[in-house]
Amino acid sequence: MARISLQLNPTLSRTTIKESSEPKLLHLPNKTRNSRVLILGGTGRVGGSTALALSKLSPDLHLVVGGRNREKGDAIVTKLGENSEFVQVNIDNVKSLEASLYDVDLVVHAAGPFQQTEKCTVLEAAISTKTAYVDVCDDTNYSMRAKSLHEKAVAANIPAITTAGIYPGVSNVMAAELVRSSKSENMGEPQRLRFSYYTAGSGGSGPTILATSFLLLGEEVVAYNKGEKIKLKPYSGMLNVDFGKGIGKKDVYLLHLPEVRSAHEVLGVPTVSARFGTAPFFWNWGMEAMTNLIPSEVLRDKNKVQKLVQLFDPLVRVIDGIAGERVSMRVDLECSNGRETVGIFSHKRLSVSVGTSTAAFALAVLEGSTQPGVWYPEEPEGVAIDDREVLLQRASQGTINFVMNKAPWMVETDPKELIFGIFL
Ligand SMILES: NC(=O)c1ccc[n+]([C@@H]2O[C@H](COP(=O)([O-])OP(=O)(O)OC[C@H]3O[C@@H](n4cnc5c(N)ncnc54)[C@H](OP(=O)(O)O)[C@@H]3O)[C@@H](O)[C@H]2O)c1
Fold first, then answer.
1. Per-residue DSSP letter, 415
2. Which domains does the chain have, with CATH numbers?
3. pLDDT in tens, 140-172
4. pLDDT tens per residue, range 251-282
5. Does the CB atom of residue 204 touch ligand 1 within 6 A?
6. Is the pTM of this model over 0.70?
7. Ligand 1 pocket, mutate which of 209, 219, 329 (most atoms under 8 A from CB)
8. Domain named Saccharopine dehydrogenase NADP binding: which ranges (predicted)?
9. Which secondary-structure segment (H or E) carries 200?
């Protein structure tokens, strides 16, 4: 794992990250150093990657991997080493779930999919057993349902963050930091926030994320235009976005993602949207075609989508082998004085970066950054403003490009020529 050093220029509030090759171990406060962390879905890609990242960042943590399949559990525990164990748990069974939370300081919920799920069983169990909570949810309805448990979490004195992965998750914190910096630099009022995401192939992900992508194609996209909520067709509104060094220009399309709503509400930006694109280019065409040809009722039906996933999965694996799994997020903020600032986060491997990002949230909760209640990542009670820099530093370990608060022309691969202050 690359070591990162973070430098903050106080005058310009510009954050730049430099990579170095030594691993960086953390020294958690004594009271949290030996915490027990349960990772539900720890036998899966996101959960397994989170467990590995936590074990590297903070080897004194005791990691409990939760899942239904003992064989997969034993395999990951072998990788994690002696400070780990497997617990067999089905999150649909409240008794088994609550038993797994006994004596655990923090639960990381990565046992998706979150789409079309009726109840927040894990958060409810965390509240009733008084266990701190983080999830990697990427579904708007689920995140709103989690948020509706806020008062119960406050009453139980439990800190919880929902949508705390890479995107959503780190991207929300990047947006919050762009907004904060724009205010401190007197750039006027934030007017428009755009989240753009790119992942090559399926990002090395498994059938769950494939199912997630198909389920999202069945959902109308909610975006905000000058304060007004608007509904748009999924995988429409294509933009060609420059993701900068190591990634370049990619086509991205509108999707219904939870960070649009939370950023609009929490950060008070009137125009917000989120787009996603993949490679090779024909996958984007395939997604567009699915949206146009398959009725949305079918794309919203979990069982039917599972069948589609089984059909497509072998082809996805073959193409993944060629496409790789680069990931990039670009967050653009436009302010009322016309100035634009950009944050970019790019990594060669989504399967690694998603774990490092989730681990950064888990550590923030363990270190006491999060107030009792259920929070979105951009809320200062979720990750304290003073702790955002450390969170971004940890999450961006191993990135090939991480920049914040830059003008677009400074980060793009093909900047327009600037002659005498005029863009040609
Ligand atoms: N926020 C973000 O940045 C972000 C990024 C990527 C993915 N995600 C989300 O993360 C989730 C996981 O993705 P993934 O690629 O890791 O999927 P995955 O590889 O299929 O892993 C899911 C894991 O959940 C476990 N699981 C499923 N149902 C369970 C149940 N009823 N009880 C206990 N464990 C259960 C499975 O373990 P067993 O089969 O062993 O039980 C499996 O290992 C998805 O919902 C995806 O949308 C979020």
1. P
2. 20-167+351-397 (3.40.50.720), 170-348+404-411 (3.30.360.10)
3. 999 999 999 999 999 999 999 999 999 999 999
4. 999 999 999 999 999 999 999 999 999 887 77
5. no
6. yes
7. 209
8. 37-160
9. strand 190-200
